[in-house]
Amino acid sequence: MDNRVRNSMPMIKYDGNAFVDMEDEVAIEYPLTIFIDNEEFATMVCSPTNLEELVIGFLASEGMVRTFEDIESMVIDEGKGLVYVSLKVKQSINKEFYSKRFIGSCCGKSRQFYFHNDARTARTVLSKIQITIEQCFRLMKLMQEQSVDFQQTGGVHNAALCTADQLLYIQTDIGRHNALDKLYGICLKGKLPRNDKIISFSGRVSSEVLLKVAKMGIGIVLSKSAPTTLAIELANDLGITVVGFIRNHQFNIYSHSERIIEGKKGE
């Protein structure tokens, strides 16, 4: 399989006057099933790029591994869309645990987790990073400039791992959560520190996205789109700064505004 996220497909375009036979660039949708120690664990639908990093980040997000070294081996059959993972420490897989609704409380306040596993793996982010207003705009601009596949298809999401001053890695996928898992996998493989990093994101900040960011231990997520109410509640609870609608020299800060400052850092 070639390492692309889009293919040319035939289509008929109505141009306002007539029907015209043309080709369009369309995002590839690829099913991938993960087996852990010969037991089926999950099937995801993704873009067929950076599959190893995607699986590593997904397993870490699900609490199956904590470091890259927890994985003994990984074999990817791209033709069949299958991944076989062997863990150094064998675990029993309770699928109900990974899909069962969780409602708990913390100091009298209910945390709005959907699943038991999120309650187990999401942690309060203690990052002290701060960025300026101009850095918010610049990081979003850098991500959008490199989002070639989105420009061609309109059918994918992009997520970028950044420092305050530069974009380090950008990942593309039809699933916004998959793009974040790919970044998580890159961090784990490269043993990259994450408490001084920022996520620049193309899509809506849902509760699922916010929890992925929390599990990565990153304190700021920037988006050109909107957050959901549950994402904002979780962000306030988990110590994450959510900045949305970064467009036309404006943005909205929905949580932990202390990380967004005016002027130069240190002034």
UniProtKB/TrEMBL annotation:
The active site is at C107 (cysteine persulfide intermediate). Signal peptide: none annotated. Coiled coil: none annotated. InterPro entries: Cytidine_deaminase-like, FdhD. It is found in: Cytoplasm. Keywords: Cytoplasm, Molybdenum cofactor biosynthesis. GO terms for biological process: Mo-molybdopterin cofactor biosynthetic process. GO terms for cellular component: cytoplasm. Pfam families: FdhD-NarQ. Its main location: cytoplasm. GO terms for molecular function: sulfur carrier activity; sulfurtransferase activity. Gene3D superfamilies: 3.10.20.10, Cytidine Deaminase, domain 2. Required for formate dehydrogenase (FDH) activity. Acts as a sulfur carrier protein that transfers sulfur from IscS to the molybdenum cofactor prior to its insertion into FDH. Belongs to the FdhD family. This is Sulfur carrier protein FdhD.
